Amino acid sequence: MSAAPRVVVLAGGVGGSKFTVGVREALRRRWPDGQGGSAAELTVIVNTGDDIWMSGLRLQPDVDSQIYALAGVNDTERGWGRAGESERVSAEMKALGAGWPWFTLGDLDLGAHIARTGWLRDGVPLSEVVARLAARWPLGARLLPMTEAEVDTQVLTDDGRMHFQEWWTRHRASIPARGFVSPGIEDAVPAPGVLEALAAADAILFAPSNPVVSIHPILAVPGIADAVRAARGGVAGVSPIIAGSPVRGMADACLDAVGIRTAADAVGRHYGSRRDGGLLDAWLIAEEDAVLAPGLVASGVPASVHPLWMRDLDTGAALASAALDAALATDGR
User: Is residue 315 part of a domain?
Assistant: First the structure.
């Protein structure tokens, strides 16, 4: 393809934001606009299943991770939040016995939460709220929430339900999960622009995000999975599993809960091939998992082997470029 493409990324979590930065850089290098950006169009459909109300504030961890990473203000050492943070407000809340002591909010981060909550209380639609937050910096990408409905992910355990953030952040996924639900998601609708972006895309990329709690909630919004299957552009996914272990986080606990092995081939088969009613035209697995490629291909999942570790901007851009090539090569199926 000689013309600059329209690219859509489905993403959630810190790993997803790292991949999005790589995609933006790959587009800048391959289709430069002469002004330091790219002539290509990049849209990110972000998981909002991680969203939560806390102390009267609406938090959107995955949306904020995308914004901070693309803006270059994320804390790369901690892996979440803003760089150069202070935590005076959280310390005062803890002294007052308010909030959750295991969920620390930085002062800069709180500024975003307060602004978001104020706009939502004033009746501003969530898509516009996300756009206003993203306008704080020149991101080089358009961010869309998967839906404007509140469909927070809950974890099913032997003792009942808890919000995903409590299970993930407080308990570090140590409590056995029996499943995950997003109450109300069956009645949700895609946020404005989501279906249109998927229909117009030349390439759709699944970030190496948690398949269960980052990518699945996006696809569970009625209409989104069907739009991916019907898209004229190619669809490529990147495995979040390397050599039997998650690239980041505790995705293995999530996969175990829904009966999927923590393996690159198992996740690829979970997504499935579009020609067989699934979602993928291409599935990128790591060099460490090269032995799995023939079995995936034989089962109908079009797998290829690439370096998947995103150690810096160059390796992230190289992975993104490989995913783009795989999707663009199957443009139009």
Answer: yes
What are the two backbone dihedrals, phi and then psi, of residue 64, each rounded to the nearest 5 degrees? -65, -35
How many folded domains does the chain comprise?
A: 1
Q: In 1-138, which ranges are continuous DSSP H helix?
A: 13-30, 61-71, 88-96, 107-121, 126-134
What are the structure tokens assigned to 319, written together?
Answer: 């992975």
Which of 285, 274, 196 minimizes the C-alpha distance to 238? 285
Q: Cβ distance 197 to 144 under 8 Å? A: yes
| Predicted pLDDT at 2 | 65
Which CATH number is 54's domain given?
3.40.50.10680
- Which residues constitute the domain of residue 220? 6-58+146-150+185-328
Higher pLDDT, 324 or 93: 324
Q: What sign results for the dihedral spanned by CA atoms 317, 320, 325, 331?
A: negative
What's the token pair of residue 14? 């810190």
